[in-house]
Design goal:
35% of the residues lie in helices and 28% in strands. With 315 residues, the protein is of the alpha+beta class. It folds into two domains: 163 residues, Ribosomal Protein S5, domain 2; 133 residues, Alpha-Beta Plaits, CATH 3.30.70. Strands 1, 2, 3, 4, 5, 6 and 11 form a seven-stranded mixed beta sheet that branches. A hairpin with a 3-residue loop joins strand 1 and strand 2. Helix 7 packs antiparallel against helix 8 and helix 10 runs antiparallel to helix 11. The chain is globular and about 60 Å long. The model has no long low-confidence stretch (mean pLDDT 94).
């Protein structure tokens, strides 16, 4: 990489976080949707943003309120940079629906600046800096979505300080059906979804979630899709958040009956992910089940099929 390079475009995947019991720890990168992010180094030391594509009008472009802008500022401060950045984001990932839109912007910006300036940062260092961008959407740094966006596949965070993230290649026969209900959401949806989380858990809840999270990691490692599905069971975070998703239990039940191995909220929602064995099951029946579940409570929905994806890469 030549340090004279002044511009780079990257493709960065959407992702789903938690997968049930892995709150703020697990995430899965998706083959689609994805964003295209262009970062240009400029000499005037300013950071400017332009956003186009899906829901572009709802995304702030002030650097202090945008995940990409916060990441650029973090780089500028940490490395005492005497340059600025023009950041152009073409959104293919719908904003505020639980598919890692803000994390994608943050991850892409961190990756692009590291590339442009030839900083040679490790993956953990990149993830730490990208996580700072999530303050704009969640109110605090968190690294689940940005980890998957940078590393691809299935990621798990062992430790936040210092950052220690691990990657596992998901099973090749793991299919993902996504349903996004068209419901009204509060501003800074992720931050609001964190406020309702329980402050204390029982020993039984702790044991249950640790057991299922450990088994899900094991299932990813041995490529056991049915066991992945059985492990997507959270009794701490998801029951609270699911109350704000109309028809959640009906949607989940219908998808499981049509062949999904596991169903969970995508991060803070409102999207729902239904995982299945693509070698034995086609996605069509599961997608129909997701649609019927939401329509049974009078909620319109968008659905699509995808697979696990690669991490951010230069176009």
């Amino acid at each position: 990489m030549s340090i004279e390079s002044s511009r780079v475009m990257v493709q960065v995947p959407g992702s789903i976080a938690n997968l049930g019991p892995g709150f703020d720890v697990f995430a899965l990168a998706l083959a689609r949707p994805y964003d295209l992010v262009t970062v240009e180094r400029v000499l005037d030391k300013r950071i400017s943003l332009r956003v186009s594509g899906l829901n572009a009008d709802s995304i702030p472009i002030e650097p202090e309120r945008n995940t990409a802008g916060l990441v650029a500022k973090a780089f500028t401060q940490k490395f005492c940079l005497d340059v600025g950045f023009k950041i152009s984001i073409k959104k293919g990932i719908r904003h505020s629906c639980g598919l890692g839109s803000s994390g994608a912007s943050a991850a892409a910006t961190a990756y692009a600046i590291n590339y442009l300036l030839d900083l040679g940062l490790s993956k953990n260092e990149l993830i730490s800096l990208a996580a700072l961008g999530e303050v704009a959407s969640a109110g605090l740094p968190h690294a689940d979505n940005v980890s998957a966006a940078i590393l691809g596949g299935f990621t798990l965070i062992r430790l936040y300080n210092p950052m220690d993230v691990y990657h596992i290649d998901p099973p090749k026969n793991l299919g993902v059906c996504i349903a996004t209900p068209k419901i009204s959401l509060p501003p800074r949806k992720t931050a609001e979804a964190r406020k309702i989380l329980p402050k204390r858990v029982t020993l039984n809840q702790l044991t249950h979630n640790v057991a299922h999270a450990a088994t899900l990691t094991y299932a990813m490692a041995i490529k056991d899709v049915p066991l992945i599905g059985r492990s997507m069971n959270d009794i701490v975070v998801e029951p609270v958040r699911a109350k704000f998703i109309p028809g959640y239990e009906a949607v989940k039940s219908k998808a499981l009956k049509q062949g999904a191995v596991g169903v969970a909220l995508c991060g803070a929602g409102p999207s729902i992910a239904a995982l299945f064995n693509s070698g034995k099951q086609s996605p069509e029946l599961i997608l129909v089940a997701l649609e019927e579940g939401f329509k049974s409570v009078g909620v319109d929905v968008e659905t699509f099929f995808t697979t696990p994806g690669e991490g951010v890469q230069i176009v």
